[in-house]
């Protein structure tokens, strides 16, 4: 295997010059840089990344902590898949790589510190957190550590921490306003889990818009889902079985909205003629169901890009943003309203 010394000898330059070509190429003349890289390719030279990490104190690795437990469906949700693709792409363009950190099980001793030990063992440059709503103490401990940390839809606090979220309240208000403008007054919601910030904020926004328009929200018109298809189906069945069922429903997530759509069809109802429906997320499936789903679109690639940009800025020495990064939402009107 070609060593850096052999590469320097064949290139006719010093070991220090080869090191600069590989690590800070902008300070080396174009001719020298081209010659060294050409000979490196010809000889199959590969950098020893472990040695490089020890020397620079940087691993170019970003830890990703996500609910990957096979018993939880979070990793399969299409919303998170799009975020992950954008995050990986943005980091890769800056020479950074994602390292998935396994979630500790409930039986693990020292659960709170396990992620911190992994960060130090792998010498990670930063961490991205995606929570399933459990507010796992192991995640919160990471945010309190010194490593730069960005979370997705999870309000965290720490010395080098920020988080990215959507304008959930504003999006929910837009959904409710749209249904009101369509003439509906009996409007129910399939809410997201209230242990999550998006679930709470979307219900708050929905309530606020109805209240601003003088529209009552009976207690039985608020049913709790979990952001997944099955809960949407079940919750819609409950709403349609009421003595005075709603004429419109806001589902706080598209997967639940698709479940609600199927429940309405199973009950022999037409959408939007018998009951109108609005979702939240604008996942790919929203445009493919029949009728196509009216929904509040989130900037899913923007989540990944914003998280990567915030992390890169902190790695460059900038302080963590004092306020969360809030991405705009917009209503996409299709066939269910």
From TrEMBL:
Q: Which UniProt keywords apply?
A: DNA-binding, Transcription, Transcription regulation
Which positions fall inside the HTH lacI-type domain?
A: 2-56
From what superkingdom does this record's organism come? Bacteria
Which Pfam families has this protein been placed in? LacI (PF00356), Peripla_BP_3 (PF13377)
Q: Which SUPFAM superfamilies match?
A: lambda repressor-like DNA-binding domains, Periplasmic binding protein-like I
Keyword DNA-binding present in the record's keywords: the answer is yes
Q: Which GO terms describe its molecular function?
A: DNA-binding transcription factor activity; transcription cis-regulatory region binding
User: Which PROSITE patterns does UniProt cross-reference here?
Assistant: HTH_LACI_1, HTH_LACI_2
Give a yes or no for keyword Hydrolase in this entry: no
Entries under CDD domains matching the protein = HTH_LacI, PBP1_LacI_sugar_binding-like
Q: What name appears for this protein in its UniProt entry?
A: LacI family transcriptional regulator
């Amino acid at each position: 295997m070609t060593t850096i010394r052999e590469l320097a000898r064949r290139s006719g330059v010093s070991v220090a010059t080869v090191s600069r070509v590989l690590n800070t190429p902008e300070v080396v003349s174009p001719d020298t840089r081209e010659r060294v890289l050409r000979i490196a390719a010809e000889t199959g030279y590969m950098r020893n990344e472990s040695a490089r990490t020890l020397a620079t104190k940087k691993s170019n690795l970003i830890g990703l902590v996500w609910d990957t437990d096979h018993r939880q469906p979070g990793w399969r949700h299409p919303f998170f898949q799009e975020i992950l693709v954008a995050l990986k792409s943005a980091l890769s363009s800056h020479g950074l790589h994602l390292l998935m950190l396994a979630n500790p099980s409930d039986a693990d001793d020292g659960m709170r510190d396990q992620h911190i030990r992994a960060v130090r063992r792998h010498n990670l440059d930063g961490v991205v957190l995606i929570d399933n709503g459990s507010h796992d103490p192991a995640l919160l401990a990471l945010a309190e550590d010194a490593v730069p940390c960005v979370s997705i839809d999870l309000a965290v606090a720490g010395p080098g921490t920020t988080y990215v979220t959507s304008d959930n309240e504003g999006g929910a208000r837009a959904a409710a306003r749209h249904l009101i403008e369509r003439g509906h007054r009996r409007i129910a919601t399939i809410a997201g889990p209230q242990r999550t910030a998006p679930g709470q904020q979307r219900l708050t926004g929905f309530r606020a818009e109805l209240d601003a328009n003088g529209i009552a929200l009976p207690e039985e018109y608020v049913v709790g889902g979990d952001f997944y298809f099955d809960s949407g189906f079940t919750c819609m069945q409950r709403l349609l079985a009421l003595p005075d069922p709603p004429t419109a429903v806001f589902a706080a997530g598209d997967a639940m909205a698709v479940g609600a759509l199927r429940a309405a069809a199973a009950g022999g109802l037409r959408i939007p003629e018998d009951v109108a429906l609005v979702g939240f997320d604008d996942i790919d499936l929203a445009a493919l169901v029949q009728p196509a789903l009216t929904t509040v679109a989130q900037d899913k690639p923007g989540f990944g890009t914003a998280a990567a940009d915030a992390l890169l800025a902190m790695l460059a020495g900038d302080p963590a943003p004092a306020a969360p990064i809030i991405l705009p939402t917009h209503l996409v009107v299709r066939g269910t309203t």
